[in-house]
Amino acid sequence: MYQITCPHCGPRAQTEFTYERTTDSVVDPASDAATAMQALFTRANPMGLDDEIWRHTYGCRAWMVLTRHRVTHEIHAVKAIGPEALP
Amino acid sequence: MKTPYSAFSLLRGALNGQKHWEPAWRDPEPRASYDVIIIGGGGHGLATAYYLAKVHGIRNVAVLEKSWIGGGNVGRNTTLVRSNYRLPQLHNFFEFGLKLWHNLSDDLNYNVMFSPRGAMFLGHNDGDMIKLAERGDAMRCDGIDAELLSPKQIAKIEPLLDLSRSARFPIDGALIQWRAGTARHDAVAWGYARAADALGVDIIQKCEVTGFVKDGNKITGVETTRGRILAGRTGICVAGHSGHVAGLAGLRLPIESQTLQALVTEGVKPMVQSVVMSQSLHFYVSQSDKGGIVMGGDPDNWPSYARRGQPTIKEHAIAQAVSVMPALSRLRMLRTWSGVTDMSFDGSPIIGPSPIDGLYLNAGWCYGGFKATPASGWTYAHTLATGKAHELNAPFSLERFMTGATIDETAVGPMPNHR
Which of B343, B365, B390 is the last residue of a domain? Predict the structure, then answer.
């Protein structure tokens, strides 16, 4: 267990947050079927850094992008995002 | 040829101080090329190699393992074996495997300690009981055993369950599969490794695949930490690391890797007779042959390759298990561990050809790979030997995610972190 620094609330326990999906798997409504299916059904799933959309679900409920390492769990950056970035 | 394990060889060995034991498998240097390379020396990879040699006569096979045999998910699961799925594609596949499980110790000449002690899914309300009855009916239509139990019948099998109406999660009934049970997970890995090795398969440990050898759109071999090895066909069989290894070949899979945790208590006298699970709650519990109570629950619902999980997830599973079986609260936790699971986007596995020639996939087992070991090996061996899917794994193609023919037992949709 570790802490995530919410852009609005500051450092909070990870259990207050939920993971949604990676930024490259947000389906663009304007994309063609093959691209949309690729975003919806596949992931890069790297053993390294990925940009992930998380939500402070049991806190302020805001969405954010975490650049997080999948092996060390180290968080390199947290960026606030607005509702327009969501699927 | 190895000496078969038997009571006779044990007795004969007693006369010379048991000095006749040989290593269960060789430690060969990798050759320059093989007919088939299997990446991943877990239960599924070893079973695949064994059935390739035994059923299809293909013995020029290498199993490449980055660490050691039995160190991955085959040594990190909770050893449950069952085939009680509602969807026919799933229960027919797992039932084929369950039949292999019942004869596995004889087949491998290795005691895998398969114990068909029964696995029951608890129902806590009318909705649960309707779903369990529907699941049982679906199974029985395909000739698989399933029986609905009343609380009175449950009490005879598991007297320590809290069957009172004042329980936090009252128990209305259960669906039991009597032929389901547990097995010794390490013995499954070692048994398949020994049997495959005896048929000529090279098991190469400490050999990590770092890349693929490509000729146009065809994979013709692998680059490893022990040099380049060429192959006619290459099969990926690396469970939680499927996304990583497929990524080396340029593939993006419908898989996200998560941590799944389990724990075991100190050993006690027999108190849990069967495997008790609840899908409305999220826990399962059984008792190992050593007496420890083995428990597990939900995966940590975010991507990770770390093999360590959050204590809150364990706490959740333990709280639920204690609520239905209060006597468990008196036990002390002995060990906890985690594995990396390959969560697929419909909860079902992927076994079949990949979009790249010469490269095959066996992945997406979510939190249920151990029980599938024999069926997965059998069908993957068929696929690697013939280039085509066996009728049992034909529904589990990679294309199903693009055509919409997903096999979604829990009807969650393409959200691996919500399963």
Answer: B343
ipTM of the complex: 0.92
Q: What would the pLDDT profile of A68-78 be if each residue is shown by its tens digit?
A: 999 999 999 99
Residue B326, classified by CB atoms within 10 Å of its CB into exposed (0-12), middle (13-18) or buried (19+), is: middle
Query: Chain A 53-72, CB below 8 Å of chain B: which residues?
Result: 54, 70-72
In DSSP notation, B40-59 reads: --SHHHHHHHHHHHHHH---
- The DSSP letter of residue B240 is G
What is the DSSP secondary-structure string of A46-64?
Answer: -SSEEEEEEE-TTTT--EE
Q: For B120-134, write each residue's pLDDT tens digit.
A: 999 999 999 999 999
Query: Which residues of chain A make contact with B311, given a CB cutoff of 8 A?
Result: 1
Percent over 90 (pLDDT), chain B: 92
* Residue B357 shares a structural domain with residue B410: yes
Structural domains of chain A, ranges and CATH numbers in brackets: 3-85 (3.30.2270.10)
Most A CBs within 10 A among B66, B300, B304, B348, hence the mutation to make, goes to: B304
Reading phi first (left if > 0) and then psi (alpha if -120 to 50, else beta), residue B288 is in: beta
Q: Tell which of A16, A43, A72 to mutate to test the B interface (max B CBs under 10 Å).
A: A43
Residue A78 and residue B154: Cα distance in Å, rounded?
50
Number of domains present in the structure of chain B? 2
Q: How far is CA B274 from CA B81, B161, B287, in A?
A: 12, 12, 8
pLDDT per residue over B66-108, tens digit each?
A: 999 999 999 999 999 999 999 999 999 999 999 999 999 999 9
- Which tokens in the block code for residue B324? 């239905």
Which residue in B272, B275, B281, B271 sits closest to B169, CA to CA?
Answer: B281
